[in-house]
From TrEMBL:
Name of this protein: Penicillin-binding protein transpeptidase domain-containing protein
Residue span, Penicillin-binding protein transpeptidase domain: 264-627
Compartmental location: Membrane
Annotated region described as Disordered, given as residue ranges: 658-723
Protein species of origin: Oribacterium asaccharolyticum ACB7
Organism lineage: Bacteria, Bacillati, Bacillota, Clostridia, Lachnospirales
Keyword field: Membrane
Domain Penicillin-binding protein dimerisation: 46-219
Length: 723
C-alpha cells in the first residue's frame, strides 16, 4: 500500500515537472512567434541615430534630428459598430488640421476600411511625417484634452487609434555649404550619396535595435528591447570659415564679375595633406538635393539632355544599334525622357569637379618639369637656354612650330627666370635634356596619372590620360613640358604642388581628421600619410624661391598680399577643340614662402568673354588672392614683411614703359597694359598663338572639362599654350 501511494506521488511530481517544462517551452515559443510578427504586440525596429559630420573646430555640418510621424490605425478606429471611435478620431483630425488635404485622404481610407472585415483591415496609415517634438506634444495635448472632455460629459465617444512613431531625419544646417564634400544621406538614413556621407557611411550608420513584443502566460503584453547602437561622428579637416570664404568669392566671381562656365578652388595644408576647403560653382541644397534650379536647368534643357541620354541608353541596350531622334518618341515617353534629363542634371550638380573632372593644366605644371630635370641632373639651377619665341621640330616628313607666349622670345634665361616669365621654350629644352623616360617617371612621382587616394568617392582615373614613355614622341614631350596634351585633376595638382613647396613630401590628401563614438570619444585619429618623397629639399627650396619671385616680379603679381611672402604659378590652357578658342585659367599659390602653411588652387573654366579675352590667368589669380588673404587671417598666421602689391606692380610697369619710351618702342598695347595692370597677369592682349602646323598626340575633343574616362587619340591639333 505504501509503495502504491509512493508511486502515485512520484507520478504526480513527474507530471508537474513535465507540465512546467511544456509550459515554459510554450512560453518561449510564443515569445519567438509573437516577436517575429509585425503587429499590435509592439514589435518594432529602433532606429540608430546617424552620426554627425563636423568641421575641424566642432561646427555641425550634418546632424540627425528626431522627428515624429503621426500614425493612424484604421483597424482600431473602425472596430466599433457604433462608430464611436471613428467619429471622435475623424472630428479631431478635422478640427486640428483643418483644411489640410491629408484629412480628406484619411477620411477616405477610414470609410473604405470600415467596410472590410478581420485581417483585411489595415493597422497602419501614415497621416503626417516629420513633426517636431513641439508639434507632436501640441497634438498629443489636444487629443488628451478632447478625451478628458468626453469622459467628463459622460459621452461615449473616444479618440482612438492615433499614435506617434519616432525616427531620425538628416539635417544640414548650412544648406549648400561644402555640399560636394559632405554629400547627403538617403531618406532612411542608412545610405549616403557622395562625399563623406557615402565614403564613411559604415561608420556613420550605427546598428538598429529592436523591441520584441510577446504575451506572457497570463496573456499580458510584455516586451524585450535590444537597444540601438548609434553611429559614429566624423570630424572633418574642413575649416568652416575658410570654406564659407571660398564659396563667397566663387559666387561673387560668378554673379558680380565676369563669370564663367565653372570655377572651383581647393585650400589645403601643404604640410600634411589636410583639405581645409573645397568648392565649385556647382552648388545644391543638401536638404533638398533633387531640387533643380530652373534658371540653370530649364525644362527645355532637361528635355535636350534627356534626349541625348535616351539615345545613348538605347544604344547601350541594343548592341550599339543607333536610334534616330525622330524615332525617339516611339520608344520613350516624354516623361521618361524628362526623367533621364533630370538624372543627367543631378549627376552634373552632385559631381565634385575638384576630384572627378580632368583638364589640361597649362603652365602650373612647369615647376614639376624643372623639378624632375633638377633631380636627374639633366639641368642645373643656373643652366641657360635661349628662347627665340618658338622652336621647330620635324619627323622628317612634317614640321611643327611650337611657340612661346612671348612671340619675340625671352632671350637667354636661367631656370628661375623661366618660371618667373613662364617660358615655354625653356621648358621644352629642359624636357629634351631630361628625356621621355625620366619625364614620364617624374609625372608619376608627382602623382599625375595616379589616383591620390583622397577619402572621397568619385576620384578620376587619369591613368589613360598621360603618356607612357614609349609613346611620348618629341613633339608630345615638348607640349607636355608646359602642361598641354595630358590631363590632371585639381586634387592631383594641389597634392603635387604641396610636395614641391613643403620640402618634397607627398601626403595623401584627406578630408577627415577624427572619428568619434556616440559619446564623443575619439576612436580613430587620421594621421597624415606620407606616400613618397618627390624631390630633394634643395630642389624644393629653389622652386619656392622661383615661385616667390614669380609673384613678386613675374606673371603672378596680382597674388601679392601686403605683409606676406606669397609664391605661386599661373596657368592658361587652351581647351579642345582648339579652333573654338576657349580657355581654362588657373593659379596655384602658397604662403608664407618661408614656411608654407596654406596652399590655394583656383581654376576658372571658360570665362564669359569671347576668344582671346578669356585667356588671362589673372581671373583665377584674383580669386586666389582674396581667398588666401582671408585664410591667413582665419588661421592667425602672422605677416612676414611689408610688401605693397600696388607699389611693386606699378613700379615694375613704369620702369618697363620708361625703357620702351627711351628706345621708341612704346605701343598702344603697352599703354593699355599699364592701364589694365590689375586685370592682366601672364598674358598681353596681343599675344596670339597661330602655330604654323598642328602638333600630334592631343587628347580627344570633349566638353569643357574632359571626363575621367576619356582615352587618348592621335588627333592633330593646333598647339596653343599660354602661361
Amino acid at each position: 500500500m505504501v509503495g502504491f501511494v509512493f508511486l502515485i506521488l512520484l507520478f504526480a511530481v513527474l507530471s508537474l515537472v513535465i507540465f512546467q517544462m511544456i509550459r515554459k517551452n510554450s512560453e518561449e515559443y510564443s515569445r519567438i512567434v509573437l516577436g517575429q510578427r509585425q503587429s499590435g504586440y509592439g514589435s518594432r525596429s529602433i532606429q540608430a541615430r546617424r552620426g554627425d559630420i563636423l568641421d575641424r573646430n566642432g561646427t555641425i555640418l550634418a546632424t540627425s534630428e528626431k522627428v515624429y510621424n503621426l500614425i493612424m490605425d484604421p483597424r482600431a478606429i473602425t472596430s466599433r459598430t457604433d462608430d464611436r471611435y471613428l467619429k471622435a478620431s475623424l472630428d479631431a483630425l478635422k478640427e486640428y488640421f483643418k483644411e489640410d488635404e491629408r484629412v480628406a485622404v484619411a477620411e477616405s481610407v477610414l470609410n473604405e476600411q470600415k467596410n472590410l472585415t478581420g485581417n483585411k483591415k489595415s493597422a497602419y496609415f501614415k497621416f503626417k511625417e516629420g513633426m517636431s517634438f513641439e508639434e507632436k506634444e501640441a497634438f498629443q495635448k489636444f487629443i488628451d484634452e478632447k478625451n478628458a472632455a468626453y469622459r467628463k460629459s459622460g459621452n461615449k465617444y473616444e479618440i482612438k487609434g492615433l499614435w506617434f512613431e519616432d525616427k531620425y531625419q538628416r539635417s544640414y544646417p548650412y544648406k549648400d555649404l561644402a555640399c560636394n564634400i559632405i554629400g547627403f544621406s538617403s531618406a532612411d538614413n542608412e545610405g549616403g550619396t557622395g562625399g563623406v556621407e557615402q565614403y564613411y557611411n559604415n561608420s556613420l550608420i550605427g546598428v538598429n535595435g529592436r523591441e520584441y513584443g510577446y504575451l506572457d502566460s497570463d496573456t499580458k503584453l510584455q516586451s524585450v528591447i535590444r537597444e540601438a547602437t548609434d553611429g559614429n561622428s566624423i570630424v572633418t579637416t574642413i575649416n568652416f570659415n575658410i570654406q564659407r570664404t571660398v564659396e563667397k568669392y566663387l559666387q561673387e566671381w560668378q554673379k558680380d564679375d565676369v563669370g564663367s562656365k565653372m570655377a572651383a578652388a581647393i585650400v589645403m595644408n601643404p604640410k600634411n595633406g589636410e583639405i581645409l576647403a573645397m568648392a565649385s560653382t556647382n552648388r545644391f541644397d543638401l536638404n533638398h538635393p533633387r531640387d533643380l534650379d530652373k534658371t540653370l536647368y530649364p525644362d527645355s534643357l532637361l528635355l535636350e539632355m534627356g534626349k541625348k541620354e535616351a539615345l545613348a541608353k538605347y544604344k547601350r541596350e541594343h548592341n550599339n544599334q543607333e536610334l534616330s531622334e525622330d524615332k525617339l518618341s516611339t520608344v520613350y515617353s516624354n516623361d521618361e525622357i524628362m526623367s533621364l534629363g533630370s538624372q543627367v542634371a543631378w549627376n552634373q550638380m552632385w559631381r565634385n569637379v575638384a576630384i572627378s573632372d580632368t583638364y589640361e593644366p597649362g603652365s602650373t605644371v612647369k615647376p614639376f618639369t624643372l623639378a624632375g630635370a633638377l633631380e636627374e641632373n639633366a639641368i642645373q639651377q643656373n643652366t641657360m637656354f635661349t628662347c627665340e619665341g618658338y622652336i621647330t621640330l620635324s619627323d622628317g616628313v612634317k614640321t611643327w612650330t611650337i611657340r612661346c607666349h612671348k612671340r619675340d622670345g625671352h632671350g637667354t634665361i636661367d631656370a628661375e627666370q623661366a618660371i618667373m616669365q613662364s617660358c615655354n621654350v625653356y621648358m621644352m629644352d629642359t624636357a629634351f635634356q631630361e628625356g621621355a623616360e625620366n619625364f614620364v617617371k617624374y609625372q608619376h612621382v608627382f602623382g599625375f596619372g595616379e589616383k591620390t587616394g583622397i577619402d572621397l568617392p568619385g576620384e578620376a582615373d587619369t591613368s589613360a590620360l598621360v603618356y607612357k614613355a614609349d609613346n611620348l614622341g618629341k613633339t608630345s614631350l615638348a607640349t607636355n613640358s608646359f602642361g598641354q596634351n595630358f590631363n590632371v585633376s585639381m586634387i592631383q595638382m594641389a597634392a603635387a604642388f604641396s610636395s614641391v613647396v613643403n620640402g618634397g613630401s607627398y601626403f595623401r590628401p584627406h578630408v577627415v581628421k577624427q572619428i568619434l563614438n556616440a559619446n564623443g570619444t575619439v576612436i580613430q585619429e587620421m594621421e597624415p600619410e606620407l606616400l613618397r618623397v618627390t624631390c630633394s629639399k634643395a630642389t624644393s627650396d629653389f622652386l619656392k624661391e622661383a615661385l616667390y619671385q614669380t609673384v613678386e616680379k613675374g606673371t603672378g603679381r596680382p597674388a601679392q598680399i601686403q605683409g606676406y611672402h606669397v609664391g605661386g604659378k599661373t596657368g592658361t590652357a587652351q581647351k579642345l577643340p582648339r579652333s573654338e578658342k576657349n580657355y581654362l585659367v588657373s593659379f596655384c599659390g602658397f604662403a608664407p614662402v618661408e614656411d608654407p602653411q596654406l596652399l590655394v588652387y583656383v581654376i576658372v573654366d571658360t570665362p564669359n568673354l569671347d576668344g582671346e579675352e578669356q585667356a588671362s590667368a589673372s581671373f583665377a589669380t584674383k580669386i586666389e588672392q582674396k581667398i588666401m588673404n582671408d585664410a591667413l587671417q582665419f588661421l592667425n598666421i602672422p605677416p612676414q614683411g611689408e610688401t605693397d602689391p600696388e607699389a611693386s606692380l606699378n613700379k615694375d610697369l613704369q620702369e618697363g614703359i620708361k625703357a620702351k619710351e627711351e628706345t621708341g618702342e612704346t605701343t598702344s598695347e603697352t599703354k593699355k597694359e599699364n592701364s589694365e595692370a590689375k586685370e592682366e597677369s601672364s598674358l598681353d592682349s596681343d599675344e596670339k598663338q597661330d602655330n604654323e602646323d598642328s602638333v600630334p598626340g592631343a587628347l580627344p575633343e570633349s566638353s569643357a572639362v574632359n571626363s575621367a574616362s576619356a582615352e587618348k587619340e592621335n588627333t592633330d591639333n593646333e598647339d596653343e599654350q599660354r602661361n
